[in-house]
Amino acid sequence: MFASNFCLLDNEITWLSGQDKLTRWGQSATIASGNTMTNSFCSICGTILNRQSSGFPGSNFLRIGTVDDIKLHDEVMKPGVEQFTQTRVAWFHAIQLNPQTLCAVTAQGCTELAQAV
């Protein structure tokens, strides 16, 4: 599914506020790998903040829109890989010089991306 996310390990996340407002819901029925995908979202507005997969223990997939520091977007959060490119929306073109894949990166790949952020 098309989305703009970044990957961090559990120990790299610091919630500044609102953690008590997070609601979690997980399922595996629509996940191709059969892993359980758990969404953490705001119980007030419904915004998904991060996802965790049982296939990538200790890793979090966060929505880039949850980071409000444009300098981080410009300098630190440059994409390192594009996944699930077959469902990319037509108006969003490939990012030059990035690896392209039709599926998820490996857990090791996620760890490498998280350490680079």
Automatic annotation (TrEMBL):
Hydrolase found in the keyword field: no
UniProt cross-references to Pfam families, sorted A to Z: GFA
Keyword Electron transport belongs to the record: no
A GO term for molecular function: carbon-sulfur lyase activity
Domain CENP-V/GFA: 2-86
Alphabetical keyword list: Lyase, Metal-binding, Zinc
Domain of life: Eukaryota
Family (UniProt): Belongs to the Gfa family.
Protein name: CENP-V/GFA domain-containing protein
Organism: Friedmanniomyces simplex
